[in-house]
Write a structure and sequence with these properties.
- The structure is a single chain.
- By secondary structure, this protein is mainly α.
- The chain folds into two domains: 1-29 and 36-78; 98-454, no CATH class.
- The chain is built from 23 helices and no strands.
- The longest helix has 34 residues, at 305-338.
- The chain is globular and about 70 Å long.
- The chain starts with a helix and ends with a helix.
Length: 454
Amino acid sequence: MLNKKRNLFSIGAALLFMLISSAQIFATGGAEEIATPTGFYAILVIVPLLVIVALLFLKVDMLAAGFVGGTIAMLIGGIGLAEANEQFLSTIPGMLSITVPIINSAIAMAVFKSGGYTSALALVRRKIGNKNEYVAAFIVILQAAATYMSGIGGGSAMVIAPLAMAAVGAIPELIAAMSIASAVAFTTSPASLESGIVSKISGVPVAEYVAEMRLFTLVFVVLSVILGFYGAKKRKTLFKGEENEEFAKLSDGELFRITIPAIFMLAAVIVGPFINDAIGMSLFNPLMYTVVTVLLIFVCTKFSMNESLEAVVDGSTYILTRLFAVGIFLSFINIIGDTGAFQVIAGIAEKAPSAFVVPAAVVAGILIGIPAGAYVGSILGLILPVVAALNFSPVALGFVAMGVGLGSQLSFVNITMQALSAGFQLPIIQVVKGNGKWVGMSMVLLLVLSYFFG
């Protein structure tokens, strides 16, 4: 009851701020473009972000936190209801247009409901026994590879997290390893929006940027695999699952047949882009592997065609709901962006000593990624033009992108984090806390690399 009253008070106060702010704007005849903040105002525009972070850690709902922070930003920046409404109506459709994660989530749920992951678990346990650490290491490799090939961490996590939960359980180090691998993979992937933004801003072709960052990506992925292995070996007792009674009666061959839809989908996501490049056409695309996976579910499992199709439609419910919520939250973040808050944070790098300019820019990326990491591509679009003005090399820009990506793995509203929370059946605050130590260490390593190689 106390929490409810506190939340209502916060929302009420924010609503009052909004009304005051809008009255001021209408009195002046409309909002004007806000210059890059300086002096005390530069500190003031950061307050809404700090408020959001504080409310999220107090377990206030992310939409309530975003609303409070957004409306405070309206008061600070003199942003009226009309401008806020424009952000609101443009941001939500943008989030709902991220179709690949929606498709992957829907198919993954259909595969899950049809028994694909359960049969895979049964096979793994029969063949590997109690050596869960090897399964965990392989899961991290799958997550990294799927994300690197598809360019989307959330969509890959939607597929792989339920499999990881079934295979080895909710191991904190494994979840952190998947988060780190995802962050470095989608920020340096040849297929990601993030790489496209870096390329556009730096003027360097995507292929060249990807090639220059590949070694650093590999370093983090290898360390993530080791982390997943270590966590599973250390926490074997966390996994208390038993083989499903229905699947225990099946032979290895029958289990493998039920697993075929899951194998095909993972192969389509991971290997498909290579095949597409080799043959010069988009054979393995979302439409193709959706249709084929549904047909395989029908052929290889007990599901009828109607049940297979219904499972796909039902499987989209979770991510559509989350994308809608994230879209609302991100509209408040964009309102904060309109005050110049992100330019202020990114501008930290400009004031740093020359030897620390790149690490300072990475720190700025991390600080922005934590509260605003719902969709990393949109954040990069805000801050990279600022740091690119400092004549950063493509590798330096890549380090900044990685910083935002790692910061997003401590964000309550990041799609990958939402997927991991759902797949491992944990509250997202528990995922954030579990990631803190290991993602933090990855950030330190990134800062060291950016100092020597940036």
